[in-house]
Amino acid sequence: MTKKQVLKLILVYAVLFLVGTFAYIASFHTFILSFLNVFFYRGIALIVLWGIIISVLMLIIKKKWMNDTIIYRDIILLFMCFCCINVVIFTHLPVTADRSVTVYMLGYMNNHADETFRKEDLEQQFIDQYVIEYEAFEKRFEEQIVSGNIIEVAPGEYQITDGGQLLMDIYSVTVQWYNLDDKLVNPQ
Question: FRET pair for 160, CA 20 to 30 Å: which of 21, 62, 80, 177?
Fold first, then answer.
C-alpha cells in the first residue's frame, strides 16, 4: 500500500468515525429508538446502529472508489473502534451524569457557587431533591423491572430474578477483582 493510499484510508476512518459519532449524539434528540425507555439501553443500541451504518458506508466506499485499499478487515475494525470508543465515552459521561451522586452534588454546588455548605446540609438537599422530588429510586426501580432483574410476584411485592442474581454475582466478582468496597454490592 502506498503512502497516499494509507493517508486516504486514515481519512476515510476519521471522517466516518466523526460522522457516525455526531449522528449518534444527534440521535438522542430524535425519535430513533425512543421506545427504549432505559437510557443506557437506548445509548448502546444507538451505538451499534450507527456502527453498522458507518460500516455499510465504508463498504460502499470500498466498492465504488477504494476497492484496492479498503479490505473487509478495515470495515470490521471501524465498527469495533467506533463501538468501543463510543461505549467508553457514553458510560463515563452521559450515563454517569444521569446516575451519579457526585455529579448531582457538584452540580448543585456549582449552581450555588457563591455559597458555602455544610456536609449535612448537602446530604439533606440530596435526599430531599434527588431522591424524593426527582424520584431517583423510583426511576432505578422501574429500570430493573424493565431489565428483568426484579419481578412483581404479588401486588406490590417484588423479588429478584435469576437474571438479577446473575448480575449481582458479576458485580461481586468485579468488587473482588478491583478491590472495591463490598458494602454497596452486598448490603446487609
Answer: 177
This prediction's pTM = 0.84
Distance between CA atoms of 50 and 17, rounded to whole angstroms?
10
For 174, residues 6+ apart whose C-beta sits below 8 A from its C-beta are: 180, 185
Which amino acid is residue 35, in one-letter code?
F
| pLDDT tens digits along 53-97 | 999 999 999 999 999 999 999 999 999 999 999 999 999 999 988
Rounded Cα gap, residues 68 and 11, in angstroms:
16
163, 151, 127, 168: CA torsion to nearest 10? -20
- Across-strand partners of 73? none
Task: Cell numbers for 4, please give them.
Answer: 497516499
How many other C-beta atoms are found inside a 10 Å radius of the C-beta of residue 141? 13
Between CA 6 and CA 15 the distance in angstroms is 14
From the number of C-beta atoms within 10 Å of its C-beta (0-12, 13-18, 19+), residue 164 rates as: middle
Residue 137: phi and psi, rounded to 5, are -65, -45
